[in-house]
Amino acid sequence: GEDVEQSLFLSVREGDSSVINCTYTDSSSTYLYWYKQEPGAGLQLLTYIFSNMDMKQDQRLTVLLNKKDKHLSLRIADTQTGDSAIYFCAESKITGGGNKLTFGTGTQLKVEL
Amino acid sequence: EAGVAQSPRYKIIEKRQSVAFWCNPISGHATLYWYQQILGQGPKLLIQFQNNGVVDDSQLPKDRFSAERLKGVDSTLKIQPAKLEDSAVYLCASSSREGAKNIQYFGAGTRLSVL
Fold first, then answer.
1. CB distance B109–A98 less than 8 Å?
2. Which residue stretches of chain B have pLDDT < 50?
3. Are the beta carbons of A42 and B56 separated by less than 8 Å?
4. Cis peptide upstream of residue B25 (ω within 30 degrees of 0)
5. Mind listing the pLDDT tens digit for each residue in B55-69?
6. Nearest to B109 by CA among B27, B22, B46
């Protein structure tokens, strides 16, 4: 399909791990990104992964990439209440007009005490 | 380093009125983007500038939307006339160089309500 797909909602308990999943569309995407959006704010880049990697770890964040299935996931270890936000995955497509990001629909993460 | 600045933060207008949004990118960033984010959706690219030239405006509804970046720094996005379906958050982003990595930094956005 044409859309980058994510599940809409995820609820976890504080201290647990969160896993947010994304299915992207373009197998030629060079980089894939995870952005975080808190209420009333713009998007903040969390991490990204180059397409020739299958895993990247950055402190509490682990990104897994399965190119064959075009599946991307973000794992947040020891989830805190401050992690409550909407998380967007995005793929980068080279087009005639330059380098274009296509975002998923976003996953709202709710962290409960 | 100052981030991407946008104004106003909020705007309420009636349908058929005009509205303009302003964006000041991070200093030195040559590439500037305007996105529309409808509630419950991800951002959708409206237009991309490289310096003061348009790189991609394929998703911009040109009958009512216009954007400019005359001196290759600040940018304005205008809607004239506005429709109810234009209610959204308009995000501006900038990046330092055009390349495969394409790290985009976002402003806080302007929330537009069309009544």
1. no
2. none
3. no
4. no
5. 899 999 999 999 999
6. B22
Cα–Cα dist B46/B61, whole Å: 8
Q: How many angstroms away from the CA of A19 is the closest CA of chain B? A: 19
At A106, the amino acid letter reads G
- Give the residue among A90, A95, A111 at the shortest CA–CA distance from A43: A90
Q: Pick the residue of B102, B106, B110, B111 with the most A CBs within 10 A to test the interface with A by mutation.
A: B102
Within 8 A of B101 by CB-CB distance, chain A residues are 30-31, 48
Using CB atoms, pick whichever of B4, B101, B108 lies closest to residue A31. B101
* Three-class secondary structure of residue B86 per DSSP: helix
Name the pairing type of β-strands A107-112 and A98-103.
Answer: unpaired
State the Cα–Cα distance between residues A63 and B35, nearest whole angstrom.
25
Q: A85-111: per-residue pLDDT in tens?
A: 999 999 987 766 667 889 999 999 999
Contacts of A105 in chain B (CB under 8 A): 40-42
Q: Where are the beta strands (DSSP E) in chain B?
A: 5-7, 10-13, 19-24, 31-37, 44-50, 53-56, 65-68, 75-79, 88-95, 105-106, 110-114
Which among A101, A91, A92, A94 is positioned nearest to A22, based on CA atoms?
A: A91
- Say whether A99 and B98 touch across the interface (CB within 8 A): yes
Question: DSSP state, B97?
Answer: S
